[in-house]
Amino acid sequence: MPESRTAPLTARNGLRPAAAPTWWVWLAAWPVTAVFILSNAATPLYVLWQRDIGFSKGTLTVVFAFYIVGLIGSLLVSGVVSDRLGRKPVLLPALGLALAACLVFATASSVTALIVARLFTGIAVGAVVSAGMAAVTDVAGPARRRLAALLASCAMVFGAGLGPLLAGILSETLPAPTVTVFVVETVLLATAVLAVLRMPLPRPAAPVSGAWIRIPGVPRGNGLQLAFGIAVFAPGITATSFVLSLGPSLLSGLLGTTSRIVAGAMAFAMFLTATGVQFAAQRLRRRTILAAGAVGTALSMATLITAVHSSSAPALIASALLAGAGQGMGQLGGLSLLNSAVPAQRLAEANAALNVGGYLPAGLLPVSAGYLSDTIGLTDGATVFGAVLLSLAVIGGAVVVACRSRVTEAL
User: Is there a domain that residue 3 lies in?
Assistant: First the structure.
């Protein structure tokens, strides 16, 4: 379905094409899912690399943080480039880099290789959360923007959860535990490449002025939407990042198990919750969604503190599920606000801005918690982390609730 044949004259002049079938809106979300499967596929495998290579919990969180470094660097470029050149010129190289990351992961024998693979993954994810999510909105058209926000957001969290589950199962049941999942992921990414090549996307709108590499932002007048989204999304995704980076270590301490299936299943359940709450909350007001997301993250951290002090595995699992709910609703609320207010020619950059605001603390705080845990113990490190993030979630929720009378139109 080439763009030159399916898009009417108005699309070639920079406007949107005729509405694509609804199934294309769903398929447009597949590249987002495929890349996010890779984003967390390594999570249950770190215990194997730690055993074979030898590194501490602090080093583990640094490996995880290089994903954030790549992602943030990508977001400084990918949103602007996507809005100016189109979604495909950003998505196709990103998928190529994701395929390269699979190769490096599958052959990794050093911390350096893991860092390179995580860096490549982060760059690919940064491109997908800006250009890929905007592509879903482009294919959906103006009349289905709320559906587009829902599908793009759910594609992200579902893929993020499916990756560790696949890795856990495949690594426990098949030979070559650190290789097999990346072979499977290579096939999935190849199908995503085909989907992007055939995707009925409009040509870019009129060029946007400004530098090509810059801190992403939103048009004048849309700052409140961005601020409200970050206030709730950032604590939520930081909570899930902590579960992904140090969750297996906590499970080992609480359950005495290093089962990769258990670690992957917990991550999958967390992100499945994030997916489910978005479908359940899609018809609520955006302010309600954001407030509920803040509550979910705050409860998650309170439960985490309880879990590590009582050595309760059920409490740890409950904390993970609540973290998923907090991220899911914060992400849906933030994306919905941007989709409803930001014009198409700045949407990828706006998505990038939301994710920069979310992923910065998601990279810094879990790394700090990892090194703190090496120094004072996992229980005390997790307690400090939980208390800090609980406070941030409460502040974010309070901002959304307190400002409702003055900025109702933004929500």
Answer: no
In Å, how far are 77, 118, 312, 317, 386 from 306, measured between CA atoms?
41, 31, 8, 11, 10
Tokens of 187: 């096939």
Residue with the bigger pLDDT between 100 and 410: it is: 100
Give the CATH number for residue 93: 1.20.1250.20
> Quick one: pLDDT at residue 209?
58
Residue 207 pLDDT: 59
- Confirm whether 1 is domain-assigned: no
Mean pLDDT for the chain overall: 85
Q: CA–CA separation, 357 vs 380, rounded Å?
A: 27
The answer to whether residue 16 scores a pLDDT higher than 80 is no
Contacts of 147 (CB under 8 A, 6+ apart): 25, 140
What is the rounded distance in angstroms from the CA atom of residue 91 to the CA atom of residue 231? 28
Q: What is the pTM of this model?
A: 0.77
Task: Report the alpha-carbon distance of residue 263 to residue 117 in Å, rounded.
Answer: 21
Q: Count up the domains in the chain and report the number.
A: 1
Is residue 5 one of the residues assigned to a domain? no
Domain region containing 118:
16-203+216-410
Question: In three state form, how does the secondary structure of 353-395 look?
Answer: HHHHHHHHHHHHHHHHHHHHHHHHCHHHHHHHHHHHHHHHHHH
Classify residue 8: in a domain, yes or no: no
Q: What is the pLDDT of residue 211?
A: 65
